[in-house]
Amino acid sequence: MSCEVKNTKLKAWVNEVAELTQPDSIYWCDGSKAEYDRLMSKMAASGATTPLKKRPNSFLFRSDPSDVARVENRTYISYPDKEDAGPTNNWVAPDELKKTMSALYTGCMHGRTMYVIPFSMAAITSPMAKIGIEITDSPYVVCNMHIMTRVGSKVIEALGTDGEFIPCLHSVGAPLAPGQKDVPWPCAPIESKYISHFPDENLIWSYGSGYGGNALLGKKCLALRIASAMARREGWMAEHMLILRLISPEGKQYHIAAAFPSACGKTNLAMILPTIEGWKAECLGDDIAWMKIGPDGRLYATNPESGFFGVAPGTSYKSNPMAMDTIRENTIFTNCALTDDGDIWWEMIDDPAPEHMIDWKGRDWSPEIKEPAAHPNARFTVPAAQCPVISPDWEKPEGVPIDIFIFGGRRAGVVPLVTEAYNWDHGVFMGATAGSETTAANIGAVGNLRRDPFAMTPFCGYNMGDYFAHWFEMGDKLGKNAPRIFYVNWFRKTAEGKWLWPGFGENSRVLKWMCDRLEGKVSGVATPIGILPKEQELDLTGLEISNEYLHELLRVDVEAWRAEVPGIDKFFAQFGNRLPARLQKQLEDMANRLA
């Protein structure tokens, strides 16, 4: 660390953690390239990572098979009162949780280095920036945090002597006895994993997992679970949303923030290449949006992250060419397959599977083996600045003004291609009732409808009934400056299981209709569920789609929607008296329109 640490609270906390965890040494991260290269070389020498011959400065890690994804059932939101966590979160009382975890933390860094990572979420100069300090015993975490956040001495300087920071404590939970050889991916058994949040204290404690959102504590833990609770207290928004700039042929800019549950094409939309002549798009963020009301009364959004932590399987030049170009170099890959010529491979990438590879578990693999070569949740971590369509304004300190919110989910039937809300309250209702049919990537029966309000179910750091109320409050403050709200469903199928809509870059045609609605160029048609496009209003130039498919994409099946009402009513009931009356009224209004 090139600068002196003057923050007395920070120094005291680091000493306190060191006494508890008993590492062999303490290292303060400076965020430099030399630091990153040194840690990667060390991990390569130990066998923890494989440098990739085909991709400059890129590395492949294989996790322990028990440590491959976020562990939602081991993730806790801890308030003194269980009601404040709400029915969608796991809860343990703070005193009890801290007692359990303190016992696990005792001596947990024996034989390891304790890394202190000072990081900023959002550009340090942004009025939306929040500073975190992650303490970890994982060099893999340090290198990923280098990419995903802004790490280093500038953060320590910004903290000064008395600046506020969010303490984020992490350990893989695998102490080493003297002389004991380390494993390539240390972690604790599943029953010892805890990803714990104490929103009243802006505090994060994570133990036992080295993977993704469990271990990179700036990501879901700080940027969504803790930030959503801070945002409610402080009057802003922390949302699980991509941020996209769409530019018309006349040069007019429209800014869109969109929330989708997993497996609904969020990263693909964030990096879209429009197929309509003259229209362009720029990516501002693929996963998280922090939004504050600006001096002009509009809502401004920034992406607090500095990298993409994307799902690899399914990413290809067909689905997301810009992501493929982004990951050509300087990328960390986790749980992908390794080809014999030193490149990565995963299912649904452009090239067919080679005759021989090493799979994500480190075993020989060939096409006749029935198991996938890459884990379905294999990942890439890559700097956002490398994306060919990254916006020049992606790090603009004040953010960009949001014109449009989009919600969506994966539904084979019922939900039309695109619907506009009648007003803000109706739009909040759309977000609150968003849902997807479960896929093979989710646990549970395939095809079941799972409600995922605002795509925030795993990430809301407080009672979701209160979260709905916060959306209404923000709408009241924004008034006439509130973004317009739309709902999309790219995933409609025929009875035979064929896609009705081609998706990917063609989704720009739906985005253009939204912009035309803002400009008053198209009127749409009022239906019981919202405003839909008239068939002739969608710009389908150059797209071959049958009238039959188009008609089905824009059809409102009144009977099917009536059947939705009891399920929504039951879903709302779990929030009891925390459910805003305005949301219940929206359900009643829709039921009346359907009658």
Put the structure in a nutshell.
A hairpin with an 8-residue loop joins β5 (113-121) and β6. The chain is of the alpha+beta class and 595 residues long. The chain is 28% helix and 21% strand.
What would your notes on this structure say?
The chain is of the alpha+beta class. The protein has three domains: 8-234, 3-Layer(aba) Sandwich (Phosphoenolpyruvate Carboxykinase, domain 1), CATH 3.40.449.10; 239-307 and 393-594, Phosphoenolpyruvate Carboxykinase, domain 3, CATH 3.90.228; 309-371, Beta Complex (Phosphoenolpyruvate Carboxykinase, domain 2), CATH 2.170.8.10. It has 16 helices and 31 strands. The strands form seven sheets. Strands 1, 4, 5, 6, 7, 8, 9 and 10 form an eight-stranded mixed beta sheet that branches. Strands 14-12-13-25-29-26 form a six-stranded mixed beta sheet, sandwiched between helices. A hairpin with a 5-residue loop joins β15 and β16 (299-302). α15 runs antiparallel to α16. It is globular. The protein starts with 7 loop residues before the first helix and ends with a helix. Mean pLDDT is 96; it is low at 440-444.
Question: By helix and strand content, what is the structural category?
Answer: alpha+beta
Question: Mean pLDDT, rounded to whole units?
Answer: 96
Number of strands: 31
Strand content: 15-25%
**What summary fits the major beta sheet?**
8 strands, mixed
Helix run count: 16
CATH topology of the largest domain: Phosphoenolpyruvate Carboxykinase, domain 3
Distance between the termini: 67 Å
Helicity range of the residues?
Answer: 25-40%
